[in-house]
Design goal:
binds heme C
Amino acid sequence: MGGFAISLLVGWCVPAGAEPAHRAATGIDDLAPAETRAVLALGPWPVPVPPDPGNRVSGHPQAIELGRQLFRDPRMSPVAYIACVTCHQPDRAFTDIKARAHGLADLPRNTPTLANLRLQRWYGWGGGSDSLWMASIKPILDAREFDGNAQLVRRLFVREPALAACYRQVFGVSPLRGDAQRTVLDVGKALAAFVETLTTGRTPFDEFRDALARGDASAAAAYPPRALRGLKLFVGSAGCVACHVGANFSDGEFHPGVAMGGAMGGVAREAAGDRGRLDDAHALRASGFNLLGAGNDDASRRNAAATRRLVPHEGLRGRYRTPSLRNAAVTAPYFHDGRSDRLLDAVQHTQRVTLDEAADLAAFVATLTDAHGARRPWDSSGLQRCP
Ligand code: HEC
Ligand code: HEC
């Protein structure tokens, strides 16, 4: 950790004038026109997103409130101590500090943060889900996570009449009536409505980017010189924007993961049986909870086009979705298998750079951290705003 912390301090605290003249990068005048264009394309932030057409309760305040309650409730698991918050912890940027998740058993993958997910279209490292509600149902049914089932989901509402009343208000039917699978589906929709609200705020980088858009040199000058050097590498010779592109720093697509080699790999260290996008594309196509199934609330099925076109093939083996880099500085360990503890190492996964350049890249990524950092706002109060 030492190298990273020290380099960051240097980047943030030493005035530009104190740096060696040949390395100084002082502000917007230092950016070539092509660099300026590339930087502007990394914003603006935040990005407005419409409600999810596949989830009829997306954006509904009462569904969000029901989802917030369900997110922290451990009673859908038979052991009654596993909840979403067990792994997606609000005071750790909705991740945990483990390399790989552990619920009732070990999982092969790192727990990702849950921020800004409406900007993605595939969910999970390998895109095993094509909607947020599918990704929210999965852990409830997975034996390694909640090990829940439809009966346990219903039992929660039997025990908690206020939650059942809230569910009725949101979905228009009792959670205890009709097909129990439908209750599970709707629980996923309420959870997804809540997860959609988890977004990150503006960051020092966004201030710099907007100052650049306005041509405001004095506002741009507040941006740390080391981060600016990292940014120039990021949009330039280091090639990061080939994948970490747009305002969310992710193309949402699947690329060879760290176990495949590249700068971090060397010897392939594929976590036992994890074939990334290849396995997850198969699982997605086979699942009854995908957008091609009856759970999709978009009658036009336009939102299912990518799932319909998806054909699992060998070329998808070992690929993972490009993670967003917003708040990445506070979500170590890194990568799908959590192999890397330090941002200083993680920024070099496609290309080895000098230690100085790695520190510049890490300083840049650190300016993608919002005011809340790891400790996301979290309302832990009991059920509200539902009848
Ligand atoms: C045992 C730890 C654990 C628990 C409990 C857990 N998750 Fe996760 N979550 C993970 C891991 C690991 C992944 C990555 C899964 C993958 O790559 O297939 C993930 C992925 C996700 C994603 C996709 C994120 C992305 O970047 O695409 C969502 C959404 C999500 N979880 C929501 C939930 C909800 C809602 C709950 C509660 C019902 C929950 N999780 C419970 C560990 C957990
Ligand atoms: C070819 C596409 C591609 C390029 C180019 C690329 N990345 Fe990535 N990045 C990914 C993918 C995919 C992952 C996840 C890999 C895995 O988990 O196995 C990732 C992961 C990361 C992570 C870890 C994030 C986390 O939450 O775990 C960081 C940090 C990162 N990249 C920074 C960079 C930087 C800095 C550059 C430029 C030097 C760069 N990346 C270039 C696709 C890319």
